Amino acid sequence: MDAAKPKGRPLPVPGPGPVREKQGLTPLLRIPSGVADFDAITGGLPPGSVILLMGDSGAGHTEFALTSASKLTRAVEGTEEFYMGPFHGATVLPTHVTYVSFTRSREQLLHEIRNSFPVYFPTFLSKHMAFVDLSSAYFADSIVPPEWSRSRRSLLDGSSGPSPGLLPVLATELENRGKNSLVVVDTLSDLLVRRSIEKEDVVTLVKGLRSRAKDWRGLIYLLSARHVTEPHIEEALKDSVDAVLDFSWVQSPHKSSRIRAMWIEKSMPLLSHVPPARQGRFVINVSDDGGLVTTQYERID
Q: What pLDDT score does 159 carry?
């Protein structure tokens, strides 16, 4: 479900963009995430990036991806503005959004979004988001009944038969839909907990994806829960992507309650443009009227 390509807006501020042009270099380009304060501090995300959104359960990595997808689909119709702070390059927008799920249907995802986020989130996602349901391949060699999983094969009735393999199916979908797109893969955790899938193969696929995504010039969000696999596999995944955004529950320094926090664990293009004084953690909040927003920024000493 592809939409017409929206036009990016060069920001009329003198700086690295014009300087690079005068030097005969390609101007820096960025894709906004749609999370305002994050974009204002970092200048947005480089096209072609594979970004691992990893976090504690409920800490905000899924909400970040859904907020970003919703804001970018809203921009397709020219109803969303992005503030990129002091960034002096040009912004570009994906032409469409693709959501890949291994265990949920499109209807289940939109139902959850309707009950959790602003009304325009499901409205724009319904119009401009392509949904890839891989549950049939995911559950094909499992004990889950076909009635539960929308799969025609199940070990329970002996009809599993040969399966094309989930990772090749995923790679094919990414190849077909990745160009100029924001792709959300929900979630690597589903792959890492399946005994029929080699964890090293998941890492290898991510490494190949990182290379291929540079040609697509969009964004790839890979969601994953923390601690679902061995530490060396988790570290290998972090090393295989362009950026890691870490989401955690932390203790509030001002009151006896937990808060959600996000920080950039890895990203050379982002951290090299963020002044050291502003390299800390984003305190985040998720609400039904704004999605994920950053409420303050804390320096970590």
A: 47
CATH homologous superfamily of domain 47-299? P-loop containing nucleotide triphosphate hydrolases (3.40.50.300)
pLDDT in tens, 81-112: 888 887 777 889 999 999 999 999 999 999 99
**CB burial of residue 121 (10 Å; 0-12, 13-18, 19+):** buried
What digits encode the pLDDT tens for the residues 170-184?
999 999 999 999 999
Q: How far is the C-alpha of 197 from the C-alpha of 202, rounded, in Å? A: 8
Domain boundaries, the chain: 47-299
CB 251 within 8 A of CB 258: yes
The dihedrals phi and psi of 150, each to the nearest 5 degrees, come to: 60, 25
Q: Which of 293, 256, 301, 289 is nearest to 120 (CA)?
A: 289
CB 240 within 8 A of CB 219: no
- Is the bond preceding 187 in cis, omega lying within 30 degrees of 0? yes
Q: What is the reported pTM?
A: 0.86
The strand pair at 49-55 and 219-225 is best described as parallel
